[in-house]
Design a protein that fits this description.
The chain is built from 7 helices and 2 strands. By secondary structure, it is mainly alpha-helical. It has a domain at 104-151.
């Protein structure tokens, strides 16, 4: 019996066949995803530039999208299912994060422990999840860089 789901099995939203049809319909084949990823690597700031030029439109779009999602029960259910799947897939990460959140607080004025960075640390990073009390204090930019390297 699963504690997180209350003994219920998770249902997948689409079968493999339905997923293939969906991918064909929206032209999101692996080839298309790969070419998009390569293009984004060559042009890393394109989205930021567009958002900065069209900031009013982008904010309005984000607000509308948030309102639609906030009230959509289907979306909320999908988010809950995704969170449950993540918790089941990475129980050691969840446990380490919970322990470190209870026992360790980021000291005020703590500087990022990344070499040559002098920004304030706002996040904790685990090198090894089996040692939940051993964390590095990092700024947002360097924490995201380290996480991307790990995955």
């Amino acid at each position: 019996m699963n504690k997180l789901t209350g003994g219920k099995k998770l249902k997948m939203t689409r079968t493999k066949k339905q997923n293939k049809e969906y991918m064909k319909k929206y032209n999101q084949t692996e080839k298309a995803k790969e070419s998009k990823r390569k293009w984004l690597e060559k042009n890393p700031n394109c989205c930021k530039k567009w958002r900065n030029k069209n900031i009013k439109y982008a904010r309005d779009y984000d607000k509308k999208r948030y309102k639609i999602r906030k009230d959509n029960e289907n979306y909320k259910a999908q988010q809950r299912k995704g969170q449950i799947k993540y918790n089941l897939k990475y129980p050691n990460k969840i446990k380490a994060h919970n322990i470190s959140n209870m026992k360790i607080k980021i000291p005020k004025g703590q500087i990022c422990q990344y070499p040559k960075c002098k920004k304030l640390a706002t996040e904790k990073h685990h090198e090894d999840y089996s040692k939940p009390l051993e964390v590095k204090f990092l700024c947002i930019q360097h924490h995201s860089k380290l996480r991307r390297k790990e995955f």
